[in-house]
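Human: For the file, kindly provide a plain-text protein record giving the amino acid sequence and the backbone structure tokens, at your earliest convenience.
Assistant:
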Amino acid sequence: MESIADELFKEFKENSIAEFFRKNRQMLGYAGKVRSLTTIVHEYVTNSLDAAEEAHILPEIRVEVKEIGEDKYSVLVRDNGPGIPKNIVGKALASILAGTKFHRYMQQRGQQGIGASGCTLFAQITTGKPVHVRSSTGRESYECDISIDIKSNKPVVSNMKDVSLEFRGLEVYGEFADVKYENSEHGVFEYIKRTALANPHASISLLDPTGKEYTFLRSVNTMPKKPKVVKPHPLGLEPGDLVEFAHRSESRRISSFLMDTFSRVSDTKINELKQLVNFDLSKNPKELTWQEAEELIKAFKSMKWVAPEFDSVSPIGEKYLELAMKNIINPEFISVVERKPKVFRGGIPFVVEAAIAYGGGAGRKNGEGEEAGGNIIRFANKVPLLFDSSTCAITYAVRSIDWKRYGIKDFEQEPVSVLVNVSSVFVPYSGVGKQAIAQEDTIIDEIKLAVMDAARNIQRYISNVRSRSLAESKYKTIMRYITQLSGDLSELTGHKQEILEEKLKKLVDTKYKKLFETDEQSTSTKDEEQEASGDESKEES
């Protein structure tokens, strides 16, 4: 006779990761029709940018979105990158948690091994169709269809054939249902615009469902600094990380494993560790227990360490960010700040950049393109974050600033855009959808410092503008009464009114001309001062 437990567990089955995400697609960002379409474009464009940069190619990306039915669209993304070799295209685009990025300790846009494979899965579960791929690596050109065997999380490649292509790179075409194109701050156009803003070295074009063409030309012709693969820092580790690294290590001793695997670990540090832990560091790392890993982590935190290497982080750069904002937003005034590299969770390096644009094309726009107040433009590793803003560290930091101190009386009503980019080897996203940065105290503090630093220049600019406006108002008021004043003086002194009026006008003109010239000079030299201060800060760092 079967027990209750036997009866209960008759239906016990093991699901693949693909099966899990098929049932929980919202965790990948596929929640809501507009968001789902933006997520698809985001995943493909992100892959294209990373691939081109790794091959040291200035990215040229083409995006085409066409309506093919009710809440049904096709998406085509083509790039000029290195392409994908025929033998791994299935794993690259149709295997969840597989890729070139997940295991490397360096800054990358994608870091979870889900992206493009998630798009393949979404196409499959909403239309039943595979994704069509065309690619050329220079040595081979081919096209094929790819899908996912959901039960096994294995790629299925079909209709593979060699073809002659007119481009080198990758082209992906998919059809998706339960999606919607919308010209809103969460839509595809806004995503492309913001991607161009944070990647001034890229040229991106978009064909929308109405047939309208948008092209965001690159602002610079130089590649960004390529982030280097570095070793993890001991202070950025948790016991689970340490055990995993140890059990995969080929080293024979824990001491050599630590020196080979992590940065800043020297013979001196090993000798120091020997005095702090209660087990033998000459044992095989594959034998490291969880308790011993906890002991090592505790010892790491009690020691003094040189800061981690920052070559793994590649921010946009003050100069390039300013050029991009002028090119795309075209504001009256821009203030850009790049903070020095910092670490969070003890040993994970990151850099915060902040830019504030005021006037002109800055600020939110309503449906008619009219000013609708201030907006926050969020980025992580140069990737726009369009959703989940309320839970994001960037939003929290910017909202917590007293903007009145910086001449902005009401952030929600003034033409101001605050851009923040957080670059790191590991961005602590608050969810798998990668649309919000977790509210780590260290990151929030750095964001606030960067934004407040940039806001000081905005304050000076606004103060100058308001001073000039007040001076102009006074000038016009005085000039309006000069005729009456000169007449009264003429009666009192007996001098001719015409002569007195001319002298009074000259006196007022001379005084206010100096004020106007001073304001113009301070405004026109602001960019030069910013560039000089930026150079000085780089020299100091």
